[in-house]
Amino acid sequence: MAIPDKWIKLLKEVKDENWNMGDIVWTLTNRRYMEKTVAYVESHDQALVGDKTIAFWLMDKKMYTHMSVLSPPNYVINRGIALHNMITLITHSLGGEAYLNFIGNEFGHPEWLDFPRKGNNNSYHYARRQWHLVDDENLKYKFMNKWNSAINALEEIYGWLHSSPGYVSWKHEDDKIIVFERAGLVFIFNFHPDKSFPDYPVGVNRAGTYKVILNSDDLQFGGENRVDSKVLHFTIPETFANRSCKMFVYIPCRCAIVYKLLDD
Question: Where is the Alpha-amylase/branching enzyme C-terminal all beta domain (predicted)?
Fold first, then answer.
């Protein structure tokens, strides 16, 4: 419960420009070495009996008016989808040895779930998930669902959930950057609300050429298409962040990128 409790506490009480990267990493990794743990973003405590889902804490009532792909861009929705995607990936890839979706959090269901009971006059109104939302191509719920599917598909290939725990090489509080390696992949997160970083140094332990294999800023995931996934990144033989070499990457604000070593 520590992980979903952490996310809900941050969303309720802390502006994301004040999120502590070290605290997030500690919550995601604070378990005995190789003790198998199930990680999840939200649970019954958040999404049942009248509280809000993670998506609704992020986007609130704007979800009822600005989730159409035909509507003008909206800052609250753009921020919400970006952070929802980042929270999903970092929890999935760093938080444990299994990952649990919670009845609709994969596509950002807006409302809570509440079974008929005396306290709600035995109402069935909230006793369902609105699965039609994610199937509507005119709504932005599809972006979060595609991101969730892409994460699971990538994990099927590289198997980070049954690999050794991630090695976190970088936690920068001012830049709001987290970097770690797991299952041979390099995960980079920029939680900063408005700072993008060109030529950001990233330490890696294996020399070679790296390419982007997953990017939350892709248009299909509701992003702004600021990352060119065709660009290759070459390491140089200089130690950085306690790793044997480094490379330089462009990491936009509120973006998560996964890199792999070519020919690996």
Answer: 167-260
